[in-house]
Amino acid sequence: MIVIAEKLNGSIPTCAKAIAERNADYIRDIAKKESEAGATFIDVCASVKEHELETLKWMIDLVQEVTDTPISVDSPDVHVCVEGIKLCKKPGLFNSVSGEGDKIDVAFPIIANTKWEVMALLCDDTGIPKTAAKRIEVFEKVMAKAKEYGIADSRIHIDPLVEMLCTSEDGIAMVVEVMTYIKSHYPKVHISGAVSNISFNLPVRKLVNQAFCVLAMNAGMDSAVLDPLNQDLMGMIYATEALLGMDEMCMEYIGAYRQGIFGQKK
Amino acid sequence: MIVIAEKLNGSIPTCAKAIAERNADYIRDIAKKESEAGATFIDVCASVKEHELETLKWMIDLVQEVTDTPISVDSPDVHVCVEGIKLCKKPGLFNSVSGEGDKIDVAFPIIANTKWEVMALLCDDTGIPKTAAKRIEVFEKVMAKAKEYGIADSRIHIDPLVEMLCTSEDGIAMVVEVMTYIKSHYPKVHISGAVSNISFNLPVRKLVNQAFCVLAMNAGMDSAVLDPLNQDLMGMIYATEALLGMDEMCMEYIGAYRQGIFGQKK
């Protein structure tokens, strides 16, 4: 599983406070912990109303002081991402583009001849499509553009847009349909998503998040935005990989346990 | 989910001690708690070397003192089950038969014209088959016998025999294949299993059990032998039902939470 660690995000109150106070130790501490917990990318999102790029730079510099783990440069503003990736010492994840406006045409030429990976959300100028067919349409547009700019499938992460379960009438059937389509037509594309969105407004969210993760992995999800410090979630991911036949004799599961990724009191 | 509560079993050391000491309070207390936690059946298994039927009778009587929840009469000896079901005030679950010896021909005529349900394990005189095809063969034999004796599909629970993951090379693919076959050919048959067998010899077993439960439910499992006092597992089951589209707007999930089935400190 490709783990995009989510805790350095100004939309999280404790992180917003650290950003407002320019608390460098907080940023460094989280980055170090996320890296040690097995993050593949450390997501960095300023989520501030003013001076976003300056704030992002301050965060990226701090993260790079304490870890070599690649950074996921995260902003709803594609131009901020374009500037942000220039601050990174090594290629990471451009997070994100979508079918909205000219995002793709701004981002893809910049990363075309690099090793940067990219996250694409399946929404466009009409918003978040309500049907699987419409989301697949957006997906195919993204893939056509990727082909045009020569970006390999294996550098692309697709977020089919996980929405809250509490207002759903058929559970996650629609998102599973989108994932299944991607997996069968573009097996090298990474299927991703922000796991915790699923449990919005429900009690005991961790159980819904964990169960969702298992079902999404069964449908092909191999990348996710989540908290790697959540040991039960991380353990559940290793367990699911073993159950799905991706971890012979559970060697990875047992190894991750011994490494302290899960099952430890912290 | 049909919950077959597993804690009154002499193969569990604390329960074995209570049986040896004829600790009636222990048996009554567990039965009451399992019932309150949402058990559909309370499994009662003596697991003693001598005087099994007498011990089973003592246990069944105690359970019936404190709860109306139907009993799962559990013994590896089909003749003990035959005597055991006569002690119950209402129909429950005959646990179990299999393709071994004459178990089915002993059990099926007894329960034919009753409301008793029955658990059938997919093994026979050759042991536990190693392939899905062989288990499906045993399953079809069970179903042919059920038809012969006029036992409706909806009264049958099939345990495809969950084996430990730690020695598996392809995860749970084989058991999922059996479940998928049953679900598509006999949609009214209940697919069951002893969930915790999957995690034998692995660390942090609860995570493997939970992830297995989610994947098995996705493959059609709607009945399981488990501990209903394990709140995270129960919550995960409710969450999975919602994710699989079996619980519109999460009303059951939220209801079970409010009822204290999960998410409570106990």
TrEMBL record, chains A, B:
**InterPro entries tied to this protein:** Dihydropteroate_synth-like_sf, Met_Synthase/Corrinoid, Pterin-binding_dom
Coiled coil location: none
Keywords of the record, alphabetical order, are: Methyltransferase, Transferase
What SUPFAM superfamilies does the annotation carry? Dihydropteroate synthetase-like
For this UniProt entry, the molecular function terms from Gene Ontology, in alphabetical order, are: methionine synthase activity
Q: Name one GO cellular component term.
A: cytosol
Annotated Pterin-binding domain ranges read 1-258
Tell me the Gene Ontology biological-process terms attached to this UniProt entry. methylation; pteridine-containing compound metabolic process
Q: Which domain of life is it from?
A: Bacteria
* Classification via PANTHER family: METHIONINE SYNTHASE
Record family assignment: Belongs to the vitamin-B12 dependent methionine synthase family.
* Protein name in the entry: 5-methyltetrahydrofolate--homocysteine methyltransferase
Higher taxonomy: Bacteria, Bacillati, Bacillota, Clostridia, Eubacteriales
